[in-house]
Design a protein that fits this description.
binds zinc ion, alpha/beta, 13 strands, TIM Barrel, four-stranded mixed beta sheet, five-stranded parallel beta sheet
């Protein structure tokens, strides 16, 4: 069997319900579910921790590391680190002069447990910038997976970022792994993004929906590049039942359905089925640092 169809999974290790909460129930109780499913299928994945998540969930970080999974970075507190591609309730992008220090702290807290320098990064909400890429490169990162196809629309195949524009291919040293979105013509439900982000549809629409939706993209990549590589992002909080709203002292945060629908057991069932279908169809599932070697070979 030729190994030329790759699936890359990154689990963003952050607080609950889209990192809007202060709680880590998903990290504590969802992560063991994720590991159970990955081990059942004997596949590899990457876990991208915020510094805060790593500091407050040392047991989970150790468990993941001891089982040999790749550990990467996902900012210090899930703050905006690049140019926003959609409006959020956050307080804005961190200052240029803060960026390196925040990432150094993110690296340091992981390294205390793993003893290794992380090479992989995903920016919260997929917000990237040239400055961010330059900073990542200077800190020894080799892989970024922040480019959202659903927002930027152009690229769906991995590329080395250009120092002039991180959304273009060039001679930089960072490998960008675009996050999978489906073409508009293949979907009817496209209410909040121009292309349909593959996340959160394994959970909200089910394994078959995503498996079928990605097929035309895989065919095109195989024809154009002789290989295919699709990158997915998931979160441990999706594997534990999430609330529809959270009351804070100043009011109530009421979530859109896509954030809580089928969180918990159903998500575990769908990921299990999705992996089963993909493996039977000849896909290879590896972590992103291993993919870097494949890409360069
Ligand atoms: Zn995140």
């Amino acid at each position: 069997m030729t190994r030329n169809k790759y699936l890359l999974f990154g689990f963003d290790m952050e607080t609950d319900v889209g990192s809007t909460s202060r709680n880590y129930e998903g990290v504590q109780r969802g992560t063991p579910e994720i590991v159970r499913i990955l081990e059942k299928h004997d596949v590899r994945a990457t876990f991208l921790f915020t510094g805060d998540c790593a500091r407050k969930n040392g047991n989970i970080l150790s468990m993941i590391h001891q089982r040999g999974y790749e550990i990467g970075c996902h900012s210090l507190f899930h703050e905006d680190m690049g140019e926003p591609s959609f409006p959020t309730s956050s307080q804005g992008t961190v200052l240029e002069e803060e960026l390196a220090h925040r990432l150094e702290l993110n690296i340091a807290v992981l390294k205390e447990t793993t003893g290794e320098d992380p090479v992989s990064f995903r920016s919260p909400r997929g917000f990237g910038s040239n400055n961010l890429m330059e900073t990542l490169e200077s800190l020894g990162f080799r892989i970024d997976s922040s480019y959202m196809q659903s927002m930027h629309l152009e690229r769906n195949f991995p590329y080395m970022v250009s120092p002039d524009d991180w959304k273009e291919a060039g001679r930089g040293r960072i490998l960008e792994l675009p996050l999978l979105a489906f073409d508009m013509e293949n979907v009817s439900d496209n209410t909040y993004q121009k292309k349909l982000d593959a996340w959160p549809r394994i959970r909200t629409h089910g394994a078959e929906f995503v498996f079928n939706g990605m097929k035309p993209i895989v065919e095109r990549q195989l024809a154009e590049h002789g290989m295919s590589a699709l990158t997915f992002y998931l979160h441990p909080w999706e594997f534990f039942p999430m609330p529809r709203s959270i009351r804070y002292s100043e009011g109530v945060l009421q979530y859109d359905e896509f954030l809580y629908k089928n969180t918990g057991e159903q998500q575990a069932v769908e990921l299990d089925r999705f992996l089963q279908m993909c493996l039977e169809d000849g896909y290879t599932v590896i972590d992103v640092r291993t993919f870097l070697e494949v890409f360069r070979a």
